[in-house]
Amino acid sequence: MGDGKTIIVQAAPFDMGAVLNAFAETTDGAGAIVSFCGVVRDVAAGDLEAMVIEHYPGMTEKALAAIREDALNRFSLSAALILHRYGHLAPREPIMMVATAAPHRSDAFAAAEFLMDYLKSRAPFWKKEITGRGAEWVAAQDDDEAALRRW
Amino acid sequence: MGDGKTIIVQAAPFDMGAVLNAFAETTDGAGAIVSFCGVVRDVAAGDLEAMVIEHYPGMTEKALAAIREDALNRFSLSAALILHRYGHLAPREPIMMVATAAPHRSDAFAAAEFLMDYLKSRAPFWKKEITGRGAEWVAAQDDDEAALRRW
Amino acid sequence: MMLELRYFAWLRERLGTEREAVETDAATIGELVAELRAKSDRHAHVFADMSAIRAAVDQELVAMDAAIGGAREVAFFPPMTGG
Amino acid sequence: MMLELRYFAWLRERLGTEREAVETDAATIGELVAELRAKSDRHAHVFADMSAIRAAVDQELVAMDAAIGGAREVAFFPPMTGG
After folding, report:
1. Strands D73-77 and D2-7
2. Contact exists between C and A (3 or more beta carbon pairs < 8 Å)
3. How many angstroms separate the Cα of B73 from the Cα of each of B77, B110, C73?
4. Which of A25, A113, B131, D33 is surrounded by the most beta carbons within 10 Å?
5. What is the pLDDT of residue B47?
6. Stretch A17-24: mean pLDDT
7. Residue B6: partners with Cβ closer than 8 Å, 6 or more residues away
């Protein structure tokens, strides 16, 4: 993760602080750095045992790179990174992370939200929650599609 | 910084990744963690030699705590942190950081932007830039005051 | 033409396979879906409600009326839930 | 009453001090500023344009017409530029 990669898709857990610090090294003196990290929650009365994330290898990397390019074209950014895991995740483990750097904080914030909104509905990941009652695919939210309309 | 403090005012540099990781430990399984880090830029054709930040000890801590309380009341948050340095800073050093955690990403993003907007105009810090041409106090931007009106 | 089909998430589970090769003359995703529905009861059931299904042609997300001429791979899956 | 005055940033630099104690009967920040302007040319110059100055009473940001009865500490400084 310290090698300047901007799209990272991996099964292994990651250290969000280490990713942020490695990203900051690539930002070329930008004044504003924003990060978002999604974490597996203890939902449903704390009975979430695991999350399993399926993805579409090949399409995933292309979709994430396209979303990142879109952000670089729309906002004045110095750098942008997307990291997303797949496979088996335990509660409280980090799922994914985006980071943006810009001369102005409004660009860094807007770009991070843009990356998240598009990633939710346009990158081929599917989450399944494993609880004591069984396994269930997470349903997409109508909100997720609606969130794209603001951009 | 690993002791769960939520308002940190210090002269020493800080490791943004370490602060983010320590903050994540306090977020109680929140799904969304947002961080913002402000970094000293290489401005004005790269001739910035240093930044000096003056503050009002006592009022600073009170103002930051009040801004944080405001954010906790307005947004559905699991945790929020503000860290700000004062004294002598070199180009590319981190100046300050906010971090927010929430069940939903919209709250985490909005609260981080809220903290930044208020911190800019309501916390008693003053920046001075030292260049080869001398020292100059940074002027407040009209934008900064305008940014408060959206909340 | 020969097409490689890919299935993900609950489509994969309910069809009992993650990929299958089909010989088809379908010009669009819609025509391909009509052919697949006729293939087996299981396919008919999975492809009954297309509002719950998205498609990609050669790893690009497309609309249901998208052309598939020359495509190598078509994928079907539910709305995405990453992030 | 005795008031402790605090100055920051360019006000501190131009006044040549970061604090001074004053004996005053001013009821508001505005009245206090009028007294300070009469104190010296340097004060008159620094407090000439109040649109560039903010004030705090006992470490709380206040408006220029704010009351200062009972206050221990009043601070003057330029608009803040943290973040």
Report:
1. parallel
2. yes
3. 9, 13, 51
4. A113
5. 81
6. 97
7. B68, B79, B80, B81, B82
